[in-house]
Structures are given as structure tokens and as C-alpha cells.
Amino acid sequence: MKLKLCTLLAILGLASGATPAADIEGIARACNSCHGTGGVSVGLSMPSIAGLSESYLKNIMMEWKSGTRASANMTRLIKGYTDEEIAGVAAYYAKQPWKAQPQSAPADLLVKAKEATERCETCHGATGGQPDDADTPMLAGQWSRYLELELVKYRDEGFQMTHKKMIKNARKLEEGDVATAAKFYGAQSK
Amino acid sequence: MSKINRRDFIKIAAAASSVAALSFPSIARAGAKAKVVVIGGGYGGATAAKYVKMLDGNIDVTLIEPNPIYISCPLSNEVVVGHRDIGTLSIGYDGLKTRGVKILHDYVTGVDRARKVVNTQGGKTLPYDALVMSPGVEFRYVGIEGYNESMINDIPHAWKAGPQTLLLKKQLEAMPDGGKFVIVVPKGPFRCPPGPYERASLVANYFKHHGKTKSKVIILDANDSHSKKGLFNQAWAKMYGWEKEGLGTNGMIEWVKGAEGGAVTKLDAKTKTVSSDFIDVKADVLNIIPPHKAGKIAADTGLTGKEGNNFEQGWCKVEPMTMASALDPNVYVVGDACVAGEMALYGNPNAAFDMPKSAHIGMAQAKVAAAAIVAKVNGLPPPDPIYANTCFSIVGDNYGFSVAHLYRVQGGTFKYIKEGSGVSPMAMPDKSPVPDIYRKLEAEYADGWLRNVMADAFV
Ligand SMILES: Cc1cc2nc3c(=O)[nH]c(=O)nc-3n(C[C@H](O)[C@H](O)[C@H](O)COP(=O)(O)OP(=O)(O)OC[C@H]3O[C@@H](n4cnc5c(N)ncnc54)[C@H](O)[C@@H]3O)c2cc1C
Questions:
Q1: CATH of the domain at B251
Q2: By alpha-carbon position, which residue is closest to atom 20 of ligand 1?
Q3: pLDDT tier at B188 (50, 70, 90 boundaries)?
Q4: Is the pLDDT of residue A11 over 70?
Q5: CB-CB: which of B381, B420, B448 is closest to A80?
Q6: Which of A20, A76, A152 sits opposite B384 (nearest CB)?
Q7: Rounded Cα–Cα distance for residues A77 and A92 (Å)
Q8: Domain boundary among B268, B288, B308
Q9: Do both B327 and B383 map to the same domain?
Q10: Residue B1 located in a structural domain
């Protein structure tokens, strides 16, 4: 029963003791408006963030906050949160279950994509579902429209991204393969 | 969370904590199921109902809304110009039902705050421990001589999405090239501060795509400035030949501010001519957005008032920590009906810091209210609130931008957090133009945002 009390206290962001710690759950509820309830997006251009690795989530938000990484939206709003709050929401969303949303794609596209994404396998795994380290995000079952827009960002020299190897790899894709690769990963269930 | 046994919980909380006194007296006494009633199934009300239920499944939640289908105003300007089907903006209440929220399709005619009961048109009486009020806005058909509510089937406002939106679309489509599409903007606060200018942009975009390039969009604005003005002007210059403020310019969009004749005071409905002290404009399509006040039931319930600045215009003042009405701790007012912080009036030097009337902030308020209610039901103090907003505007093909607002509560008052707020950039830090990709991304994100807010509120 004690556990239950703790659960409610935590959900309401009250489990802080003497110092009023940031209400992490309350902050996460605010993120839900754009990223979906519990961080599971239903908007094709918006990423699901539930179940991504804690270090990826934290790192990307801290890069936005410090200004080293560009974003059309996130840079502006994330600056309003303290480092502790960012670490807190990163930990929170990392604990939520990842929900793959496999989107259908034509069989010939999937075949073609296999070839186009060969060089991506070492880091993302064959389906984008086996990231090789905690700083590599899940691609399998992420929204393909979102993934395509991300690839466009990595490929655009005017858009400041940070991960050199990923930038290089994205720019090696043939123009016509960008959407193909995105659809391929979006179609995977794991 | 759903597994929490409230009764055990209350016992522990009551025994272990001195904050038990914060609970609603009737619940703490009887250990009965707490009752939350929500008035209005728009973005604010639906979100409040859902999040109360999600946070504590043992609370009995009833949402009262007359319409079986809700139609989203956000992105309804895209419907006007044929970029979006209104079906994508329509949603029912089955998602909330599945979550265990009771849905009553009825209209609230009165609230007896002393007895804590809600009365409906259908003759139902519902008791509540906490009431959430999210009735949105009511229009005030005043201030323009010759204009009244009976005219909206000829002179649509399209400021509540649905048939009005489709009517404006039809009128736009029927307008001949060389015509004038006139938007009359009321004095703020009105819902969706960038909305009229987004509409103007998309109508100009429609003219471009439909070979009606001799047509004009004229905005007659009762205010002297508007939301995201720099960004709109920049976009209009890029896409629609915008030159400068005032009537008679060469661009497709003309904007007349209040001080220079934009504040319309007279209508000749027969000729669709609107006038102010300085100018007369004859419209081919006339879109008058009337001034607003809080939804009728808020005033009928005595939650709006005359005391102080924030009350004068018929809005509900709230407690920053909880969104409870300043006049009744058991009634929480969220969404367009409340005024949080200063009045959002352009011309007010603090205007940029006021909470706008948007779906996004209405949902943020609803989540704060839900958490405060669940805490109170369980004898706990309210958690620290956070209020975040983003309003996207789509202004052309692959061209969007946004404004973000963040508020916290400090020292018992709303505090605008500059660091987590602001508009999309006008230029890069080195003064170079913003690359097109930024505008394209935000146009894309607007659609993703819409689908997520609809689901986060109604599913
Ligand atoms: C053209 C336009 C574009 C917009 N674009 C955006 C945007 O891009 N982003 C954004 O965040 N916001 C936008 N908005 C603003 C947004 O629509 C509102 O801020 C939002 O709908 C407010 O939610 P609400 O719950 O307060 O009110 P509403 O959504 O209006 O809902 C109120 C509900 O209460 C019900 N009701 C009223 N009285 C009673 C009663 N007595 N009993 C029972 N039910 C009752 C009504 O039927 C209604 O369903 C836009 C608005 C317009 C007009």
C-alpha cells in the first residue's frame, strides 16, 4: 500500500520531500500535446518519444538547449526547462514502452530499400530496430514521414545537426532513396 | 495508476499526512466515490475529463456536451481554402467513453454552486465534488451598428468550426476575380490570436492557385498590432506582394489597423459595406469575427464579474496553482472562458506575456486542473503547474511558423518564462535569411500537432 501512495505522489509530482523538485509528470503531460499521450504520437510528422533511450533523449534535448543543434520548434521551448527537468523527462519517457506503429509499404519499395539502407545497418540494425548503442534512436515503427523529414535535415547544409557520422551517411543516400529508406523503417514492427 | 485503491489510499494519506484537510470535505468524510462533472466537450473539457480519469480511475467523471461530434477550429482555415477535409477535424466521444468517462449529450442550463449540482436542459441534476467549466466563448454581437446574429448565414464568422467554415469556403469559391474578401477583426482578446492573419494568408494563397490574382484580402482590425506580425509581414512580402500597412497597396493582402480606420463600427448588410470613422469598404465576401466573452454558462453561474481589469469583459479569473475559479474553489475554469494572467490585449505593453486563447494552452490548463483535482480528492496539495503553448500558423505552400509560450507559477502568480517562449526566427543569428526548410518543417509539424492534440484530448 505504501507503494501505491508513492505511485500517486510520483504521478502528481509530489514525491519530492522538502525541496519542491520539478513536477516531471506534469511537464511530461505538457509534452504529450505534441508527442501524443504517454509520448506515443499519432501525428505522422511528430516522433513518438516513449521508450527511446534515456541518454539519447537527454543528449538531444541538451544539445537543443545549448544551441549546438537546430530545430524548428524544440530549441525554443526546451530552453524554458532546467537541466534537472530535462534529465527527469528523459528518464520518464525512457521508462514508457516503445510502441512501434508499422505502416504499410509496397513490397517492391521494401526490396529496393534493403539495398539503399545497407550502410545504415551497422548502427541501426537490419530493420532499424536494433540500435547498436544508447545514442542511436529506434527507427523501426517510428513514423516514416517524421523519419524522412529528419533525413532531409541531416542532408541540408543550412540545418545545423551534430552527429557527424549520421550526417555523412544521410548525405550519401541518393535523393530518391530518402523517402524509400524512411518508408522502409516506418514499415518495420521491430 | 489504474490499480490504486482510493479507499486504502485515503486512509494512508489521512493517517500519514497533515494535508488531509485539503481534501473535499464530503469525500474525506464518507469515503464515497468522488464526482467530477465537466461542462463542455471541447479541447479544454475533453482533456480535463480524460486526465482526471487517467490519474485516478476511481473518480467518477461525467462530461456534458450537447454535440455528438466535435469539430476542431485549429486548422479549419485550411478547410476554408480547400486544403483539408473537415472530416479530419471531426471527432466523437467514444475514446473518452472507452476510458471510462461518462458522456452525457445534454446542455447545462444552470449550476447551483451552493448545493454543488449541475442542471441540464434534459432535466438531469448531477451533483459534483469538483466542477470543470470549459464552455469556450460566446460571441457579443455588439459594437457594429447594423450587424446582428441573424446575419451569420450571409456574413459568416467561421470562428466556430462546422457549417460556418463550409459557408465561408463556398463564398470564397464563388467570389469572382477582382473581388474583395474582407475580414473584420474584433478587439482582443479573441480565440487564436494569429487566426485571422493565418486565414488572410491562406485566402491569398487560394487566389494565387485559382487564377484570381486580381483579388484582395482586406483585414480591418480593431487592434493596432497583431500576433506574429513580423513573421506574417515577411511571409506576405515573399508570397503575396505585401508592401506596407494601409488600404490601396499593391499586395494581395491589406491590413488596416484600428487607429487608421480598421475598427469597424457600421455595416450596411445589403451591400456588404463596412465602415469606420475613416473608411468604407465594400466586400464581396464579408467575414465578421464578433468580439468574444466567456461561454454563457460561465456568466450565468456568476464566475465572471466586474471586479478589476480581468473581469470587465466577461471572463473568469482563476487561481494560478490549480485553475480553480477565483470565486469558487470547487469550480475549475479552463480554456477560452478563463483569463490567466493579464488580459491579452494588443497595445498592452505586457501583451506578449499573456496567455493566449488557444486549444494548446486550454489543454495545458485542463491538465493542471485535472492534477489539482486528483490531488485534492486524495488529500494532497496541488503539484507545481506548468503551462506550455504553441500556436502554429500555416501561411502558404510549405510555409509555416509558430509562437511558443511557457508559464510557471511563482509567488502565487503566473510568470511568463521568456526562455521557453518566442516566435520562429525572422532571420538567422548571422542575419542571413531563414532557410526554407524551417518554414517547411513547421508547416509539416502543424499537421502532426493537430492529430496529436485531437487524440490527446479525445482518445
Ligand atoms: C479559426 C480558428 C483557428 C484556430 N487555430 C488554433 C490553432 O492552430 N491552435 C490552437 O491551439 N488553437 C486554435 N484555435 C483556438 C481553439 O479553437 C480554442 O482555443 C479552443 O477550442 C478552446 O477550447 P475550449 O474547450 O475552451 O472551448 P471549445 O473548443 O469552444 O469547446 C467548448 C464546448 O463547450 C460546449 N458548451 C458550451 N456551453 C455549454 C453548456 N452550457 N453545456 C454543455 N456544453 C456546453 C460547446 O458545445 C463546445 O463543444 C483556433 C480557433 C479558431 C476560431
A1: 3.50.50.60
A2: B359
A3: confident
A4: no
A5: B420
A6: A20
A7: 18
A8: B288
A9: yes
A10: no
- The minimum CA-CA distance between A70 and chain B, rounded to whole Å, is 10
**A93: amino acid identity, one letter:** Y
Residue B129 within a domain: yes
DSSP string, B347-409: TSTTGGGSPP--HHHHHHHHHHHHHHHHHHHTT-PPPPPEEEEEEEEEEETTEEEEEEEEEEE
In the beta sheet, which residues pair with residue B389?
B405
- Cα distances from A131 to residues A48, A63, A105, B180, B298, in angstroms, run 16, 20, 22, 56, 53
Decide if B448 and A25 are in contact by the 8 Å CB cutoff: no
Identify the architecture of domain A20-94 in CATH. Answer: Orthogonal Bundle (1.10)
Q: What angle do CA B205, B210, B211 make, to 5 degrees?
A: 105
Domain count along chain B: 2
* Residue ranges with strand state E in B70-215: 70-71, 90-91, 102-104, 108-112, 117-120, 125-127, 130-133, 137-139, 180-185
Cell of B178: 477582382
Query: What pLDDT, in 10s, does the model give residues B256-301?
Result: 999 999 999 999 999 999 999 999 999 999 999 999 999 999 999 9
Residue B194 included in any domain: yes
Q: Do A33 and B364 touch (CB under 8 A)?
A: yes
ipTM: 0.93
Position B431: which residue type?
K
A107-186 homologous superfamily? Cytochrome c-like domain (1.10.760.10)
- Interval B56-73 mean pLDDT: 98
Name which of B283, B282, B276 is nearest B262 in CA terms: B276
Task: Please write the tens of the pLDDT for every residue from B350-375.
Answer: 555 578 999 999 999 999 999 999 99
Return left, alpha or beta for B172; rule: phi > 0 is left, psi -120 to 50 is alpha, else beta. Answer: alpha
pLDDT at site B23: 64
Per the CB < 8 A criterion, the answer to whether B255 and B242 are in contact is: no
CA of B391 to the centre of ligand 1 (A): 14
